[in-house]
Every structure is written in C-alpha cells, then in structure tokens.
TrEMBL record:
Residue span, GPI-anchored protein LLG1-like domain: 29-105
Record-given protein name: GPI-anchored protein LLG1-like domain-containing protein
InterPro entries given in the database record: LLG1-like, LORELEI-like
Region (Disordered): 103-123
Species the sequence originates in: Dillenia turbinata
Entry superkingdom: Eukaryota
Origin organism lineage: Eukaryota, Viridiplantae, Streptophyta, Embryophyta, Tracheophyta
Length: 142
C-alpha cells in the first residue's frame, strides 16, 4: 500500500493549492459539476446513508478515472465543492459510504451503442478509491 500525500487547502478554503510537489492540479474544472445531484437528494438533519451514498456514486462514478488519479487533487477538490454547496457534517460520506476495502463500487460502464461507429468499449468494474481518501481528509479539516 502506498502513502497518499494530500495538499493543504488554499486560502479561499475551496480548492487545494497547487504548491504540492507530488500532487498536480485537477485537469478538469470541477466547479461546474452538477452538485445538485447530491444536494437535492442527501438532506439533513437525518441523512439516509443509502440515499446520500447513491447520490455520491451518481456524481462521482462517471469520473472515476480522474478521481482515482493519485497524481492530482481531483478527489479532494470534488469533496471541497460538495462540502461547500451541501454544508454536510464532517465525515458524513466517509463514515457512511463504504462498500468494500477499496471504496465505492461503481456500476459497470454501459455497453456501446450502435452509433459508436463500431468502437469497442470495455465494461469493467471500477472503484472510486480516492473518493474515500478525499472524504477522510475533509473530515479531519472540519
């Protein structure tokens, strides 16, 4: 098991700073993601684990490739925005959303449609590994 170096948060408290030698800034602009996928479903004061975790998977699983990239801050940045927009209690997702030792199991990718010009797409099971690391980090910040 390798260690994960998580960068500190920037002064605005939203996204990690780009000062880390080991972690690059996320190549995708996560600010514009549709966080209402989570905030419209996962509501307090009594958060339902299944509802909240399913919403998290709906948002995160299509982006598992960038969230699992240990060389970027994508996962931590995503959770910064989730916390900013949803104002969730510290550790909510980290404590409630556990499916196996690797994190959340994302559904298999859908089979390619006939309009894909015959291109092949592999259908594999993916785990959102960094998601849980990002959640644990944010839980410690609050």
């Amino acid at each position: 098991m390798s260690n994960l170096c998580i960068p500190s948060h920037s002064s605005d408290g939203i996204a990690p700073s780009g000062n880390s030698l080991l972690i690059d800034e996320c190549p995708e602009n996560l600010e514009n993601w549709n966080y209402t996928i989570i905030t419209s479903k996962c509501k307090g004061p009594h958060y339902t684990a299944k509802v909240c975790c399913d919403a998290l998977k709906e948002l995160a699983c299509p982006h598992a490739d960038i969230l699992n990239d240990l060389t970027t801050d994508c996962s931590v940045t995503m959770f910064s925005y989730i916390n900013l927009y949803g104002k969730y209690p510290p550790g909510l997702f980290a404590n409630e959303c556990k499916e196996d030792k690797d994190g959340l199991n994302c559904p298999e990718a859908p089979p390619p449609s006939p309009s894909d010009n015959g291109g092949q797409m592999s259908s594999t099971k993916s785990s959102v590994l960094m998601v849980m690391a990002g959640l644990g980090f944010l839980a410690q910040l609050c």
